[in-house]
Amino acid sequence: RVVHCGRGVDASGSCARMRRYQPQSFEVVRGPLRLQGGAAPTLALLLIDCQQAFLDGYWACSFGLEQVGPIQRAFNNTVALLESPRALSRCAVLCTRCYLEGAEAEYPPRLAVLLDRVPCVWKPSTDVTWNPLF
To answer: In what order do the strands lie in the sheet with 120-122?
Structure first.
């Protein structure tokens, strides 16, 4: 069975939106920090790969749109948490992004607003500790 994103497959059987992942640098996204738990945070929250690709991009296309529901719910719950200042008052937040590029590497719109100035670390694999800046 060929799983694709509904946009058709080409002669090789690949989804029309599939493309190769390009490795990204290990640089931390710089900017004024946000959601860092004040002067002495006692908790930390690591948001892993909250990227558009997992909703309607390469990943969703490759693994099937039936996989998207739980991810969308997780993203919605993340939005609700980030909109609760009291819940994060002593919590430092850090994000990761995996090896995607372009629009698929971006946060979904509702998360993008909330994570705009939150530090982010690119990760080259499923192990964020491979990034020396982590």
So the answer is: 28-29, 120-122, 91-97, 43-48
Please, which pLDDT band fits residue 2 given cuts at 50, 70 and 90? very low
Long-range contacts of 33-38 (CB under 8 A, 24+ apart): 33/117, 33/118, 33/119, 34/93, 34/116, 34/117, 34/118, 35/82, 35/88, 35/91, 35/92, 35/93, 35/118, 36/92, 36/93, 37/88, 37/89, 37/90, 37/91, 37/92, 37/93, 38/89, 38/90
Alpha-carbon gap, residue 74 to 56, rounded angstroms: 15
Residue 116 amino acid letter: D
The answer to whether the pTM exceeds 0.85 is no
Structure tokens at 115: 């994570």
Percent of the chain surpassing pLDDT 90: 22
DSSP summary character for residue 10: -
Q: What is the pLDDT of residues 52-96, one digit of tens each?
A: 988 988 888 888 888 889 999 999 999 999 998 788 888 888 899
Q: Nearest 5 degrees, angle CA 69-CA 70-CA 72?
A: 65
